[in-house]
Amino acid sequence: MSSELFYISAARGLATIGLGLGSGMTFGTSAMIIPALFKSLQPKDRLRTWRTLFETGKFIMPTLVLGTTSLLLYLSFVGSSLDSAVVAGVTRRILLRSSALSAFAILPFTAIVMLPGIKVLQKVDNAGSSKTPNAELQPGVETDRMIARWERQHRVRATLVFAAFTGTVIDWYMF
Q1: How far is it, in rounded angstroms, from Cα 12 to Cα 93?
Q2: Residues 157 and 23 sit within 8 Å (Cβ to Cβ)
Q3: CA distance to 77, 78, 89, 169, per residue, from 83 (Å)
Q4: d(CA 168, CA 109)
Q5: Which of 104, 76, 79, 111 has the alpha carbon at shortest distance from 164?
Q6: CA 21 to chain centre
Q7: Which tens digits make up the pLDDT trace of 105-157?
Q8: Distances (CA, A) of 16 to 6, 92, 104, 162
Q9: Angle at alpha carbon of residue 102, lines to 101 and 104, rounded to 5°
């Protein structure tokens, strides 16, 4: 196997595994973790646990998204040139670039759509942990609604990661 084929195979594997892990993590958050928070914790604990979950995702996902997007773009330029059929090369470029766009779309979606609500939840959490609590910024029904809204928006991100992952799996299957 030539070194170029080795790098292409490694990039395909890393992109697929990374997006598979990201997809599982995001779907798991929406399908299991958030529902469990609402069934088992009080509002203050729910908010604190959400914050920990959010901070963990904030640490992992941007790196994962940028890394896999870079790998997919690399593959769309280099990997598709190795296909013997012109149609296969064009199809592969479209598939990989669509997957890269789907993965990358998570970042602007988070910044534009989700960040205003996230900042409010963080402000309430910070006020709850201070020594002089503010009566207006206490966890309760409103923060529960905001966490539920965050979870609905998070499902969009989970769908975007899953779409990118599906594209990489199709790439493995077709090419």
Answers
A1: 13
A2: no
A3: 11, 10, 5, 17
A4: 21
A5: 104
A6: 10
A7: 999 999 999 999 999 999 998 887 655 555 566 788 889 999 999 999 999 99
A8: 15, 15, 15, 11
A9: 65
